[in-house]
Design brief:
Blueprint (H helix, E strand, L loop, with lengths): L6 E10 L3 E11 L9 E11 L9 H8 L3 E5 L15 H7 L3 E5 L12 H5 L4 H8 L4 H15 L10 E6 L1 H12 L4 E7 L9 H22 L3 H14 L3 E2 L5 E2 L1 H4 L11 H19 L4 H11 L5 H6 L13 H6 L39 H5 L1 H9 L9 H5 L5 E6 L7 H10 L3 E6 L6 H4 L1 H13 L4
Parallel strand pairs: 4-5, 4-6, 6-7, 7-10, 10-11
Antiparallel strand pairs: 1-2, 2-3, 3-5, 8-9
Helix pairs in contact: 4-15, 5-6, 8-10, 10-11
Length: 466
């Protein structure tokens, strides 16, 4: 499919004193590239370059040529999360020092790119129309947006600079593999961190692998904080006895909802984050016999996807090619003894009397659409997405096997979200894939240990390993 250049709607440039020049870019692209008549949506990005003040004023031609540095595009993890402002991201300085200019691109439906919420979805019509709209927000559409934006930004660039480099964190890495599958001619080089998608695997196969790592992380949690065995059990009894605890924004804290806190276990400091939340509730109950509003607010912030509904609705769909997910995480989870609480009612857990109670990981369950106000509005839409079977392919294994654009991947043995074993199967499918493998970092290393990850990836790229 030929992708036409995006229409640049607006550009505003700002200076970050002594550091960067940041341009806020707004593009118009088709909702549906296969049917442009369906209308358009907006894609937002921030371009960032070094703010330089030369001793002599350059000519317009000199200024234009100097600004035409190779592009390095960052795709955020998710799905459903936008990019942070460049000045707040550690990698910005490192990448600019390498001679690039950067583009932080909010994927469609996220950040400032026609964001998805219950209210914005309602503009599409009934639940069926909303579901049809959401089918256009997976990696296949995201990379078409990237190509359209690339053609716009490099339209007057010399041929050697028309390709760009791309970096994908987590789900952003899944998008990189889609990019390599269908538009490799647009890429000079590709980087991923915790983003080697399980190509060719079904959602059930993915969750069977990731649940095993979640079990390991639960054991690590209770080994580090053995006192939390009793604390978690006591907190669950309290929630159950109240029939659920109201949350500040109108949702309800249930036992099953609480036990999804384990999604934090896969990042640096994640065990400590969960412990701090459990400790707050434990101390509240011991002093007041109820959970205080500040503690409930902290729990709600850690549990709710009301501000990122796209993540909740499409999380399983990112693994689907020609099959329905049918709420895979819940079905697979129920087959494990450690997660029998998934079969409980919203206010109880059948395994509450067991110790320890295991937390789930990066899984989305249908009961979450009963616990939070924004998700509740979208429950019928989420169910339609879960039952949809006619998902197009996200990867071209034939093309990946012949890939000529080198892919540099940072891969983590103890990644709880992107299974290491499945990632290694993907490596075998992708020609010209080179890896940095670590057993000392977790999935969020590009944020938690930015310098280390980028140093290793660029060393791999520059082939300077002795």
């Amino acid at each position: 499919m030929e992708i036409f250049a995006a229409r640049l709607l607006e550009t505003k440039t700002h200076l970050i004193p002594g550091k960067f020049r940041v341009s806020e870019l707004l593009f118009e692209v088709p909702k549906d590239y296969a049917n442009p008549a369906r209308g358009s949506l907006q894609i937002f990005g921030r371009a960032v370059s070094r703010h330089e003040k030369p001793a002599a004023v350059p000519s317009e031609e000199e200024r234009r040529k100097k600004s035409q540095k190779p592009w390095f595009v960052y795709l955020q993890g998710g799905p459903g999360f936008g990019c942070s402002a460049p000045q707040n991201v550690s990698m910005t300085n490192i990448v600019l020092d390498r001679g690039y200019q950067m583009l932080y691109l909010d994927q469609r439906g996220t950040g400032l790119s026609s964001p998805i919420s219950a209210a914005t979805l309602a503009l599409q019509g009934d639940a069926h129309r909303q579901a049809d709209y959401l089918k256009l927000f997976r990696a296949d559409s995201i990379v078409k947006d990237c190509e359209a934006v690339r053609k716009t930004l490099t339209s007057d660039y010399p041929s050697e600079l028309k390709q760009w480099s791309i970096f994908g964190q987590s789900f952003g890495g899944f998008c990189v593999l889609t990019y390599l599958s269908f538009f490799p001619h647009g890429l000079r080089e590709a980087f991923t961190s915790g983003g080697l998608a399980p190509v060719g695997r079904t959602p059930d196969q993915v969750y069977k692998a990731t649940y095993q790592k979640v079990i390991e992380r639960n054991k690590a949690y209770y080994s580090k904080y053995p006192e939390d065995i009793e604390a978690v059990q006591g907190l669950c009894f309290h929630i159950k006895s109240k029939g659920g605890v109201p949350l500040p924004s109108g949702g309800v804290l249930t036992v099953r909802g609480l036990l999804t806190l384990g999604r934090n276990f896969g990042v640096h400091g994640g065990l400590d984050t969960v412990h701090d939340l459990i400790l707050r509730c434990k101390l509240d109950l011991s002093q007041f016999q109820f959970i205080s509003r500040p503690s409930l607010s902290a729990l709600e912030s850690a549990l709710s996807f009301d501000d990122n509904v796209l993540y909740a609705i499409l999380h399983e769909a990112i693994y689907c090619q020609g099959v329905a997910s049918n709420w895979s995480a819940e079905r697979v989870g129920r087959s494990y003894r450690e997660f029998q609480w998934l079969a409980g009612s919203p206010q109880s857990a059948s395994s509450v009397r067991e110790a320890p109670l295991f937390f789930s990981g990066e899984m989305i369950y249908p009961f979450l659409f009963d616990a939070f106000p924004e998700l509740e509005k979208l429950a019928p839409v989420a169910d339609m997405i879960a039952k949809y079977t006619d998902w197009p392919d996200l990867y071209d294994e034939w093309q990946l096997a012949r890939n000529s654009t080198t892919l540099y991947a940072a891969t983590f043995i103890d990644d709880m979200y992107v299974d290491f074993g499945l990632a290694q199967e993907t490596v075998k499918l992708v020609k010209n894939c080179r890896q940095v493998i670590s057993n000392t970092m977790y999935h969020d290393a590009i944020r938690s240990r930015t310098d280390e990850v980028l140093k290793e990836l660029f060393t791999l790229r520059d082939d300077s390993i002795d």
